[in-house]
Design a protein that fits this description.
The structure is a single chain. The chain is an alpha+beta fold. It folds into two domains: about 325 residues, 2-Layer Sandwich (Beta Polymerase, domain 2); about 40 residues, no CATH class. Helix content is about 50%, strand content about 5%. It contains 18 helices and seven strands. The chain has a five-stranded mixed sheet with strand order 1-2-5-4-3. A two-stranded antiparallel ribbon has the order 6-7. Strand 4 and strand 5 form a beta hairpin. This is Nucleotidyltransferase family protein. InterPro entries: NTP_transf_5. It holds the Pfam family NTP_transf_5.
Length: about 400
């Protein structure tokens, strides 16, 4: 990949710059880099970006790092190791239960991703399990999980918009303290993506468990990780490190490029590769175009916003400036076709329309002609509240 320019990271904290350099395992870092570091901020960033297991592995024998920092990283590393082992047990148990019910299931992240990309469960964090099942099996999956002690999170929907506007629903097991996300799509609609049958046909079998556990093919996994990370602004380095790890694998790049182009993920793939190359010095030899287009560079630069401050997109409500920036960013990463479909989707009723005007279910079809008026009313009310 030929660089057109360097990303502007002047406003990124030096503590995060050091973390990025440490995540480049091929680089020897001089002792000067560890001087004048705010170690409290370093720890906060390590935990926020979910890269503390890798940093502990890298720093555990470094004398230039304060012992209290090493101790905290060690504590978090051990907690994560136990968590990953626990999740591995639940992953195998759920796979067995789904298998007995003849439900096809593909694991998306969690321990299986740690084993595939890092070769060690302890080197990647996971807060939950993510599985993909056919849409037609959701009722069966719901019944099975409820019988197993899981509690379903509420998903508000109107006119079955959940089938394409959303892509997963969460279940929590109160006793085991495990969250399970059941996906029927890789990404929220109306984006184009491979069907479940295509993903199942290309699936791989993991060697980490006794009972068969399946995960995505190499090109499908790259597509999923790219789309997931980009959608979250690569706001946690862990998602970018996953791509860094994938770049160590052998790819059929001609086949992969065709796959990414078909589903319109080529530009955000280039965005991720630019970030990896610039932040981690990841060697990129993909057979993609030698000169990355300007849009990919601009998208990569727009991501730096999330590194200049500690932004947690999962903690709502977001600050107004962050919410506005992220909304614009999400629109900017969509392909032209995706933007058109996204704008068109505004004509379809939203669950929030029900809060403005509650109609009996058999009259929900009226939300279609009423949609422009309800939208205008909501905007007027929110603007009035804002002014007051």
């Amino acid at each position: 990949m030929n660089s057109q320019f360097d990303l502007n990271i002047a406003s990124v904290p030096k503590e995060l710059i050091l973390i990025c350099e440490l995540l480049n395992e091929n680089k020897m870092i001089s002792g000067e880099k560890f001087e004048h570091i705010d170690w409290s901020l370093f720890l906060k960033l390590s935990i926020h970006h979910r890269v503390y297991p890798l940093l502990y592995y890298k720093l555990k024998d470094k004398e230039c790092v304060p012992q209290n920092v090493i101790n905290r990283l060690r504590t978090e590393y051990k907690k994560n190791t136990f968590k990953m082992l626990f999740l591995s047990g639940e992953m195998e148990q759920i796979s067995r239960q789904f298998g007995e019910e003849n439900i096809k299931m593909i694991h998306l992240k969690g321990p299986i991703l740690a084993a595939e990309l890092y070769g060690d469960l302890s080197l990647r964090t996971s807060s939950d399990l993510d599985v993909l099942v056919p849409l037609s099996e959701l009722n069966k999956v719901d019944r099975m999980l409820l019988e197993s002690g899981y509690v379903k999170e509420e998903l508000v929907s109107v006119l079955n918009d959940w089938k394409w506007r959303h892509h997963h629903i969460g279940y929590v097991h109160p006793k085991k303290q495990i969250k399970l996300e059941v996906h029927w799509r890789l990404n929220p609609g109306p984006a184009k993506e491979p069907s479940f049958s295509e993903l199942w046909e290309r699936k791989r079998k993991s060697s980490m468990t006794n009972f068969p556990v399946y995960f995505l093919s190499q090109e499908d996994l790259l597509l999923f990780l790219i789309s997931h990370g980009a959608r979250h602004g690569w706001s946690r380095l862990r998602w970018l490190v996953d791509i860094h790890q994938m770049m160590k694998q052998e790819f059929d790049w001609k086949k992969t490029k065709k796959h990414l182009k078909k589903f319109q993920f080529l530009t955000i793939t280039e965005q991720a590769l630019i970030l990896c190359s610039q932040l981690f010095k990841t060697p990129i030899n993909t057979g993609l175009q030698q000169k990355i287009n300007n849009r990919s560079w601009k998208l990569a630069q727009s991501t730096i916003f999330y590194y200049e401050q500690l932004i947690n997109l999962h903690r709502e409500p977001l600050p107004a400036d962050v919410a506005k920036y992220h909304k614009n960013y999400l629109f900017s990463i969509k392909s032209l076709q995706h933007k058109f479909l996204f704008i068109l989707s505004f004509l379809y009723p939203y669950p929030m329309d029900i809060k403005v005007l509650r109609l009996p279910k058999f009259l929900h079809f009226l939300y279609f002609p009423l949609r422009p008026f309800i939208w205008f009313f909501r905007k007027t009310i929110s603007r009035t509240i804002g002014e007051n």
